[in-house]
Amino acid sequence: MAVTDHVDLATFMAGVSKRNPGQTEFIQAVQEVAQDIYEFMEDKVQYHEAQILRRIAEPDRVISFRVCWEDDNHNIRVQRGWRVQCNNAIGPYKGGIRFHPSVTESVLKFLAFEQTFKNSLTGLPMGGGKGGANFNPKGKSDAEVMRFCQSFMTELYRHIGPDTDVPAGDIGVGGREIGYMFGQYKRIVNRWEGVLTGKGLEYGGSAMRPEATGYGAVYFLRNMLMHKGMDVEGHTAVISGSGNVATHAAEKITQLGGKVLTLSDSGGYIHDPDGLTQEKIDWIKHLKNVKRGRISEYADEFKGATFHEGRPWGVKADLALPCATQNELNADEAKTLVANGVKAVSEGANMPTTLEGVHAFQDAKVMYAPGKAANAGGVAVSGLEMSQNSERVSWNHERLGDMLTDLMQGIHGKCVEYGEKDGHVDYVKGANIAGFKKVADAMLAFGVV
Ligand code: GLU
């Protein structure tokens, strides 16, 4: 058999598993895409001959490096850092940096793979990458975080650049960390350039970037609901997480007349039957960003709210937005949400639902938007930050808000175009095919490189 012959999905996945031993998250992400792409490629011999899926599932490169830093007690600490450059067919590598003890090569490879499709879906010229370190910013002083960020960038700077690879934030990396990393990059290369996004407004950041992922996930949700003649207003929502994505998703749901019942962190979740208000959300933002406290403190502050260990998926609601981390919603929890009458699920996090959980939503014909479509608003506004930096301009909040709304509507439209059948939209399939097609066609144009 020639290598270009059509191997079936099971054989393809067996190869992926064999080449990436123990990398369960990466294999899961490839499986989710491959099952849709195989169907789409059925009659498209050029993709098979050029081994396009096989090539996308093999990152362009995985860079791994040692990060040494000194803690406040003068102990020398050693972490591992990575940058996974998955695919740059349609633009410079683009994707966040994650600092969390759970970060492994598998996690970053899955995130870079997902990012490739997500970035393609935005319609902007961005390839897919992801980076990070197994560093836990929790409980660290500002000075420790600064020294870690500087050490991390002292290696990373040689692999990135405004036309090469443009990192941003992700879990554990927000405005503070981006500031420290940008400062170190600028010091080393002696150039001010748009090498990171998510920067502060004072130094080339974009308005609307902090809100973009959470707001975008709600705009996507609203597009799904409107496609079925519904809206957010009057509906209850369960949200997980309490970081940048979750708090901004909660804010937008609230602004649109929905009622947010829960938020969470790794310690558990709060249930507020009265619903969150802007005042309560601002309190949580301060708790998390300034005091760096725990969500359990919310139940001490606001009457009627309770704190529970575990995850919020047992709370009955019309809408669900997983906005914390990967694999935070399993099949049993998905079934509970379905039994409780959930109408739509929009993922603010990356791959928060397990494969079996996704199938439970799909079997129940619940509107379900995967992260690569629903949370693309963040990276989309990052793309706009890159444009503003290149042009040396800054657009205002209102203009960027309109652009974000249009971008999310555009992504929804692409999912419908490729995923609608017999009046039901398979958003996973739509996102996978639309995201894949643009990257694949660019790769075909380049030949074998
Ligand atoms: N980390 C975010 C994501 O998962 C944003 C990436 C970016 O802005 O480059 O899409």
Tell me the layout of helices and strands.
Blueprint: H1 9-19, H2 24-41, H3 45-49, H4 52-56, E1 61-70, E2 76-87, E3 93-99, H5 105-122, E4 128-133, H6 142-156, E5 165-168, H7 175-189, H8 209-227, E6 236-240, H9 244-255, E7 259-265, E8 268-271, H10 278-289, H11 297-301, E9 306-308, E10 319-322, H12 331-339, E11 344-346, H13 355-363, E12 367-369, H14 371-374, H15 376-391, H16 397-419, E13 420-421, E14 424-425, H17 427-446
Parallel strand pairs: 3-4, 3-5, 6-7, 6-10, 10-11, 11-12
Antiparallel strand pairs: 1-2, 2-4, 7-8, 8-9, 13-14
The protein binds glutamic acid.
Overview of this protein structure:
The protein is an alpha/beta fold and 449 residues long. The protein folds into three domains: 9-56, no CATH class; 61-193, Rossmann fold (3-Layer(aba) Sandwich), CATH 3.40.50; 210-369, Rossmann fold, CATH 3.40.50.720. It has helices at 9-19, 24-41, 45-49, 52-56, 105-122, 142-156, 175-189, 209-227, 244-255, 278-289, 297-301, 331-339, 355-363, 371-374, 376-391, 397-419, 427-446, and strands at 61-70, 76-87, 93-99, 128-133, 165-168, 236-240, 259-265, 268-271, 306-308, 319-322, 344-346, 367-369, 420-421, 424-425. Strands 9-8-7-6-10-11-12 form a seven-stranded mixed beta sheet, sandwiched between helices. α15 crosses α16. The mean pLDDT is 97. Bound molecules: glutamic acid. Glutamic acid is lined by residues 94-96, 168, 170, 197, 350, 378-379, 382.
